[in-house]
Design goal:
Elements lengths: L2 E2 L2 E3 L5 H10 L6 H11 L13 H10 E2 L4 E7 L5 E6 L5 E9 L2 E5 L3 E3 L8 H4 L2 E4 L2 H14 L13 E4 L9 H12 L11 E5 L3 H10 L3 E5 L5 H7 L8 H15 L5 E7 L7 H10 L5 E7 L13 H13 L3 E4 L24 H22 L1
Parallel strand pairs: 2-3, 7-10, 10-11, 11-12, 12-13, 13-14, 14-15
Antiparallel strand pairs: 1-2, 4-5, 5-6, 6-7, 8-9
Helix pairs in contact: 1-2, 5-6, 7-9, 10-11
The chain binds S-adenosyl-L-homocysteine (SAH) and iron/sulfur cluster.
């Protein structure tokens, strides 16, 4: 349970944990449902607003607990309706949350860690190094904040957020307990009542944790593939050296087969010009995914300064998509949203206090590159 000083933060408690909490303070379990509805359906963080909770209990709750969401540092709204919040978490770092409206859907992209230790070569979050795991309250707090900002409370009526994807900053399977607790609250009717098919966890491939996830919860799974062979994937997604493609894909297959119903794996594939966007890569991908029920989401690379990568041309993207499509795959290309507020995948920068010191090395490399560019410009 999330605590500051000696107060329990009720925001991050699952229904079961909330019932245990009320029992631990000598109260009836049904109080859990009442309080959860106030918090998640009505966006309340003040015990005095809970009109069906008697004054004595409200005072007792105030003495031993709190409802504390991360601090909102900024909220930006893009011309296309995309919204981005920067929130500060307890470690002092900032993370980002993005809301993307599309058709009748509203997808919230939620962060799980401040920074990321995994250092995928094309990801700006990876370049910032790792600072901290978010608490369950900080993960679900992003949903709470977004939901409140739409003024669509109660959350279950006139819902703005129909889908949640754990695709913000961080690797969700490396902050397992807190992410699973938060996803439970997202799907709970006392929480946000989002259907299990519409909550998606995206992973770069922490194979043993995929198996663990399958035993604990039923959410949609996305694998960040990015390369169709181990040699290339080792370079782009370094965790592949620990859990190579054969191992991670087997874990994904076990995960979706356990779900039983007609569920499929989402494959995310960031297209990098001349690196993984050639016909040979599409062919290898077709062979690799032949026996896996999946849908493929191609993400044209979103550039950031000194990444060393480029976005492929629209023709190259279409060519890649067509090859997969002809092999019978369901393939979509993710359009970039919220460009004017830097809200695209892999561009989430937050303000991470780096404990790995990776960002220092990255800044040093950038500096060298800038200096040499300056020199070249000067010599022209
Ligand atoms: N850590 C998890 C989830 C967060 S990243 C994961 O890696 O799956 C969400 C998606 O954005 C991942 O597929 C990631 O590889 C992709 N991504 C990261 N940087 C990107 C960039 N610069 N351009 C396009 N996609 C990027
Ligand atoms: Fe971490 Fe995902 Fe970025 Fe890789 S792509 S560095 S796992 S956030």
């Amino acid at each position: 349970m999330t605590q500051t000083a000696d107060k329990t933060n009720l925001l991050g408690l699952t229904q079961r944990q909330m019932e245990q909490f009320f029992e631990s303070i000598g109260e009836k379990r049904f109080r859990a449902g009442q309080v959860m509805k106030w918090i998640h359906h009505f966006g309340v963080d003040d015990f005095d607003a809970m009109s069906n909770v008697g004054k004595a209990l409200r005072e007792k709750l105030k003495a031993c607990s709190e409802i504390r969401s991360p601090e909102v540092v900024s909220e930006d709204i893009s011309s296309d309706g995309t919204r981005k919040w920067v929130v500060r978490v307890a470690s002092g770092s900032c993370v980002e949350t993005v809301y993307i409206p599309q058709g009748g859907r509203g997808t919230l992209c939620v962060s799980s860690q401040a920074g990321c230790a995994l250092d995928c070569s094309f990801c700006s979050t990876g370049k910032q190094g790792f600072n901290s795991d978010l608490t369950a309250a900080e993960v679900i707090g992003q949903v709470w904040i977004a939901n409140k900002s739409f003024g669509t409370v109660p959350a279950k009526i006139d819902r703005a957020i129909t889908n949640v994807v754990m695709m913000g900053m961080g690797e969700p399977l490396l902050n397992y307990d807190n992410v699973v607790a938060a996803m439970n609250i997202m799907m709970d009717d006392l929480g946000y009542g989002i259907s299990k098919r519409k909550v998606t966890l995206s992973t770069s491939g922490v194979a043993p944790m995929i198996d663990r996830l399958g035993g604990d919860i039923d959410v949609s799974l996305a694998l960040s593939l990015h390369a169709p062979n181990d040699e290339l994937r080792n370079k782009l997604v370094p965790i592949n050296r620990k859990y190579p493609l054969a191992v991670v894909l087997e874990a994904c297959k076990r995960y979706i087969s356990r779900l039983g119903e007609k569920r499929v794996l989402t494959i995310e594939y960031t297209l990098l010009k001349d690196v993984n966007d050639q016909p040979v890569h599409a062919e290898q991908m077709i062979a690799l995914l032949a026996k896996i029920p999946c849908k493929i989401n191609l993400i044209p690379f979103n550039p950031f300064p000194f990444s060393g990568y480029e976005r492929p041309s629209n023709n190259a993207i279409r060519r890649f998509q067509d090859l997969l499509h002809k092999a019978g795959h369901n393939v979509t290309v993710r359009t970039t949203r919220g460009e004017d507020i830097d809200a695209a995948c892999g561009q989430l920068v937050g303000q991470v206090m780096d404990r790995t010191r990776r960002s220092e090395r990255y800044i040093a490399v950038r500096q060298l590159a800038e200096d040499s560019q300056g020199r070249q410009a000067g010599s022209n």
